[in-house]
From TrEMBL:
PANTHER family: ATP-DEPENDENT RNA HELICASE RHLE-RELATED (PTHR47959), ATP-DEPENDENT RNA HELICASE SRMB (PTHR47959:SF3). The keyword Nucleotide-binding applies. Belongs to the DEAD box helicase family. The lineage of its organism: Bacteria, Pseudomonadati, Pseudomonadota, Gammaproteobacteria, Pseudomonadales. Residues 232-378 form the Helicase C-terminal domain. It comes from the Bacteria. This is RNA helicase. Pfam families: DEAD (PF00270), Helicase_C (PF00271). Coiled coil: none annotated. Gene3D superfamilies: P-loop containing nucleotide triphosphate hydrolases (3.40.50.300). The keyword ATP-binding applies. GO terms for cellular component: cytosol. Residues 33-205 form the Helicase ATP-binding domain. SMART domains: DEXDc (SM00487), HELICc (SM00490).
Amino acid sequence: MTSLHDIPLNTLLLSATDKLGYTQATDVQQAAIPQALEGKDLLVSAQTGSGKTAAFLLPVLHRLLAIQSPYKVSRALILLPTRELAMQTQEHLQQLASFTHIKAGLIIGGESFKDQIAVLGKKPEVIIATPGRLVEHIQSDYDLSSIEILVLDEADRMLQMGFADDMKLIAERCNSKRQNLLFSATLDHEKLVRISEGFNEPVTIEVHSQKQDHANIVQQMVLADDRKHKEKLTFALIEEEQPAKAFVFCSNRVECEQVSSFLRYKKLKVSYIHGELNQSLRKKVMTELRQDRIQVLVATDLAARGLDIAGVDLVINFSVARSGDDYAHRIGRTGRADSNGKAVSLISALEWNKMSSIERYLKVRLERRVVKELKAEYTGPKKLKNSGKAAGKKKKKK
């Protein structure tokens, strides 16, 4: 494994990585940082938890230190899908830039627009933003022509959230001679081609595809009858596993709040997070989770992407993920940095085929698990197709 000191980074940045205890470059850092330092445009496929945030922050900071601007302008823009990921990235940047003069401005929804105008007016070297709010500033005549480096992190997630037009507009408003660094869990998304049209002969790097096995994560399934049964199973699993931290993933806001209420009734230290929660409450929840004042976080898929929470031992899929990619990102909350983790999916009769499709897509087989005294009446399909899906009754020909 390559040491970060073997990569020609500014000594002020290496002092910061030493202070943070980052000594060895991860695979994505080893592959991406040297190419980015050469000024090349990149298309990088890498999972959350692979060290990809530092893989773009370090070359961005290095460039800002190596090439001084004669004017006080914002020079780098980092675009991310969610407020939580943006705040997390700002915190990471502040740590890596702690020995430098470089400042970052945060432009996200849910915060005062007027205060953000003041932040942008100070011309921070780096702008960290979510697409929707930044477009609002552009529509109020904010100028991005000084941006020399554009980073698109979790690009596939931004596209899934419907930000394709916003991303395209933002890219068009940046300096046409900029460097582009795009990071995504997958490079297969059809709209990525449109987003990367303005890139200059980009280098493609693929590290830890989301389809690769999570070798250090035990993946299990527990059959369930209904929502009430799933609630009891969730509590029983947490009691059995005794995780330091656990994530419970639900399909929507209502389910998220219901499960959280049940676990709170059971005296667990629990909270929830979803897209309709206001910004101050979302900040409070994430702070409490990082400070170990919460053991269980119940969440919609908002929290599945990007959030870097250390020490998550257990992931429970209360409802089956919508896709194989979403499933991979959910369980990727655990088993990080070579630690071991466990992911348990609660499967009802109506969800069997969806889970079967995920298994086939990711080329995995979930091991069956039974929770004592809570065995489901549902025992799985009576007959299976070759695909693993339930075989239905053949319809009689008329």
